[in-house]
Amino acid sequence: MISATPGRRKTLVANWKLNGHAEGVEAWLEAMAPIALEGKLDLVLMPPALWMERAGKWLARHPGAITLGAQNVAACEEGAYTGEISASMLARAGARYALIGHSERRRLFGETDEIVSRKLACCLAAGLTPVLCIGETEGERRAGETDRVLERQLAILDEGGGFSPGASLWIAYEPVWSIGTGQAATPELVEAVLSRVRSHWAGLNATIHEEPRLLYGGSVSPANAASLVALEAVDGLLVGGASVEPESCADLCRSVIRALA
Ligand code: PGA
User: Is the CB of 182 inside a 6 Å radius of any atom of ligand 1?
Assistant: First the structure.
């Protein structure tokens, strides 16, 4: 049995992807902040980058409620990279975390492990916590290649990537076949994969501020969140579709809080 660090509050990360609208930022924060302030669940909002500062301004007036993360980050710190946003720009806008290697970025925008590795280094250099997303496709799962794929995706951690004792890292297992499909991974699979991820990390001898937080993502909903978050191995959930509307996200948080009580 592997376990999340005792005493650590679990986390729910709301990844809006390319959804929502500007005014919805404050509405969402207003609905979710009271839940976060109960202190039973940490909440991270990942809005489209354009609204990061907007969310940051609201949160400056309601400190401690919710933290912010970015859905993506440039693989370079500065220069002639049209359309990119650097890790330090995101940090200055209020982000504390950034997703790297999300399967939609890998699949639709050509993000290779090499690019993910550079993004990892940029995040660490800027003091952002990278949230490394890993996961196999349906085809890879059927071909029995899940372990090999996950090991390859985790291998970017092996070079050290700029880890220092002050750094932190989160890793999210998001099987590609589960994202947006309504078909979440089983608790058994999530436990098994996160156990392998912990062993991989333990074998690296990297020193950071605390053990990496391990998340699960993929079709998390108010109906299944409780059974997933209650797993010892799970430090939190990365939620896409069910996190955008405040009512649905609040339902989800409530079911998580009940499961953890
Ligand atoms: P989903 O997305 O919850 O809509 O499946 C999760 C994610 O891609 O982070």
Answer: no
